[in-house]
Specification:
Elements (H helix, E strand, L loop, with lengths): L2 H24 L17 H15 L6 H16 L5 H14 L7 H13 L3 H14 L20 H8 L4 H7 L3 H13 L4 H15 L3 H7 L1 H21 L5 H13 L5 H17 L12 H5 L11
Length: about 300
C-alpha cells in the first residue's frame, strides 16, 4: 500500500475518532459527563482535551496496538491528570490498527482485519497495555487472581483480556471480536445516523439496557447496576413502542439522579463511542453531518469564538 493511501486512510480514521469523541461530549447520556452537565469531578473540556492529545499516538501508522494504547493514555494523563478515556482508547486502538489494513470501507472487511489484529496481539502489547491501565488507574479496578495489571503480564493481551471478559465488557470485546460493538451498537447508531446526536444516545441506551454496566458493578455492586439497567430498558422500550426518542427533560432528570448517586455508566459510554467510530469508518461521510455544540469545531480544527487566535 502506498504512503499516499496510508495517509488517506489514517486521516479518515483520525477524523472519525474525533467525531465520535465530540458526540460523546455533546450528547447528554444519563450519568456521563457532557457539555450540558459536569460530574464525577470531571468536566467536558477534559474530554475534549483527551481526544485531542490521544489522537496522534492512537493513529501512528504501523504502530502496535499496545504502543497505541500506552501512548494515548500517557498523553491523556499528562494533559488532564485523570482517567477520561481508558475504555475508549482500549476499544479504539485495535480498531485503528485493523483499519490501516482495510482494502475497502465494507463492514465485513473491517471485521476480518480486526479478527487478524486481535489474533496477533502479543506479550509486548500486554506489557504496554498493562502499564497504560495502571497509569489511568480506573475507579473500582480491584485486583485480579490472574494477569493483574499491576504486575508484569505473562500472557498476550488477548488472553489477558479474555480472563477479564466476565467482569469487564470492554475486555470482552477483545475476546469476542467486538461482537457487542458490531452487533448491538453499530446497527443502532446507523439506524439513527441521519441525526448523529440521536444515534449516539440510541447506542448508549442500547448498551446500558442489555446488561449491567461494568463500571457501576465494579464500583457499586451488581444490585445498583441492575437497577440502572432496568431504568434504561424502560426508556428503550418506550422509545421503541412510540417511535419517539426520550424527551430532553426526562434524560436530564435521570442524568442528575445518577450523578447525585455517584453512578457513572462509563463502560456503556465507551462502547457507544466505539460504535460511532466504527460507523464513521464504514461511512466517512457521516463526519460531515452536523454535531451540535462547539466540541466538533474544536476537534475538527475549525475556528470558534471560544478559541484564541494567534
Amino acid at each position: 500500500m502506498s504512503s499516499r493511501v496510508i495517509s488517506g486512510v489514517t486521516n479518515e480514521a483520525r477524523r472519525a475518532y474525533l467525531w465520535a469523541c465530540a458526540l460523546d461530549v455533546v450528547v447528554r447520556k444519563p450519568g456521563n459527563v457532557s457539555a450540558a452537565s459536569a460530574g464525577h469531578r470531571m468536566h467536558a473540556g477534559q474530554f475534549i482535551t483527551s481526544a485531542l492529545v490521544s489522537v496522534d499516538p492512537l493513529f501512528e501508522p504501523g504502530a502496535a496496538v499496545g504502543k497505541r494504547i500506552e501512548g494515548a493514555i500517557a498523553a491523556t494523563r499528562a494533559a488532564v491528570e485523570c482517567n477520561t478515556n481508558l475504555g475508549i482508547v482500549l476499544l479504539c486502538a485495535p480498531l485503528a490498527a485493523a483499519n490501516e489494513r482495510r482494502r475497502n470501507h465494507g463492514d465485513d472487511e473491517l471485521t476480518a482485519r480486526l479478527h487478524e489484529t486481535l489474533a496477533a496481539l502479543d506479550l509486548d502489547d500486554a506489557r504496554a497495555a498493562f502499564r497504560a491501565i495502571a497509569l489511568a488507574n480506573p475507579g473500582g479496578l480491584g485486583a485480579a487472581a490472574q494477569q493483574d495489571v499491576r504486575e508484569v503480564p505473562t500472557a498476550d493481551l488477548r488472553v489477558a483480556m479474555q480472563l477479564a471478559a466476565d467482569r469487564d465488557r470492554v475486555a470482552r470485546q477483545y475476546a469476542n471480536d467486538f461482537a457487542d460493538v458490531v452487533g448491538l451498537g453499530v446497527p443502532q447508531f446507523i439506524h439513527h445516523s441521519a441525526t448523529p446526536a440521536t444515534a449516539m444516545l440510541a447506542a448508549y441506551l442500547t448498551f446500558l439496557a442489555t446488561e449491567p454496566d461494568s463500571h457501576i458493578v465494579r464500583k457499586h455492586g451488581a444490585a445498583l447496576a441492575h437497577s440502572v439497567t432496568e431504568d434504561a430498558r424502560a426508556m428503550v422500550d418506550a422509545w421503541s413502542a412510540s417511535g419517539n426518542q426520550p424527551v430532553a427533560t426526562a434524560v436530564a432528570a435521570w442524568d442528575e439522579r445518577l450523578k447525585s448517586a455517584g453512578l457513572n455508566p462509563g463502560t456503556s459510554a465507551d462502547l457507544a463511542v466505539a460504535s460511532a467510530f466504527v460507523a464513521a469508518l464504514a461511512d466517512p461521510c457521516l463526519c460531515d453531518l452536523e454535531v451540535p455544540g462547539l466540541a466538533w469545531n474544536v476537534l475538527n480544527n475549525r475556528p470558534t469564538l471560544t478559541r484564541r487566535s494567534g
